[in-house]
Amino acid sequence: MADHPKQKSKGKLRGLPKDSSEVRISKTLSWILRHGAQSEKLYMRPDGFVRVSELLATPKLRTQLDFAGLQTIVENDTKQRYTLMSGPDEAALDAGDIWWIRANQGHSMKKVKLDLKPILSSTDIPMAVHGTNENAWRSISTQGLSKMTRNHIHLAQGVPGDGVISGMRTSAQVLIYIDVQKALDAGIPFSLSDNGVVLTEGDAEGFLRPEFFGRVEDRSGRPIAGWSPVSTTAQATENITSSHVAEV
């Protein structure tokens, strides 16, 4: 009789084998709070909070993390990814306050509706910039930024080295500066998370198109060769014209 396929352990931590246990625990915590609450059978409030007691009892974390360790992760997180607070439990209002935790942004679960601060003018923030790598830039330069499976496109209020704590990886090679006012005037909403990340759902298809890119530079501040707002618009016009001619 053939052996049954080996099932993936429900208690397996996220991350790479080379990662330290601390890093893997942190990645697992982030994944659960942003993407995996349902698969871990956790109740999540519409504002993204889950009960800490239930989180620490999940198969992935129950032997890896206690409340003191969770507090340490939250307090030492330089990007301020989490909010840990005490408050009433709507399922047992007479039982006193309990501990709740949520990720401040980055969710893919559609039911999560964070209490975000609307950005009404480009003057509300110093800038909005997205960091990416050269390979991803090839498609972004023509299609725009996509929220993909997440609820929002993430933008930072500065670049690494400016004291920015969240919204961009330090390994970013290409910096895309957004013309926020132009996008706002076009009806694209922007908001601010609790940890200072600029968020947007993009257009109806979930994209922030290249027409809203103010400038694009490498980490040294040099313009990316072959791209400018004018050339992008011209290319889009050329594509539309070519398509029209082909149809005729």
UniProtKB/TrEMBL annotation:
Residues 1-21, 224-248 are annotated as: Disordered. This is 2'-phosphotransferase. It comes from the Eukaryota. Residues 229-248 have a biased composition (Polar residues). Belongs to the KptA/TPT1 family. It catalyses: 2'-phospho-[ligated tRNA] + NAD(+) = mature tRNA + ADP-alpha-D-ribose 1'',2''-cyclic phosphate + nicotinamide. Pfam families: PTS_2-RNA. PANTHER family: PUTATIVE PHOSPHOTRANSFERASE, TRNA 2'-PHOSPHOTRANSFERASE 1. The keyword GTP-binding does not apply. Its EC number is 2.7.1.160. It comes from Bondarzewia mesenterica. Keywords: NAD, Transferase.
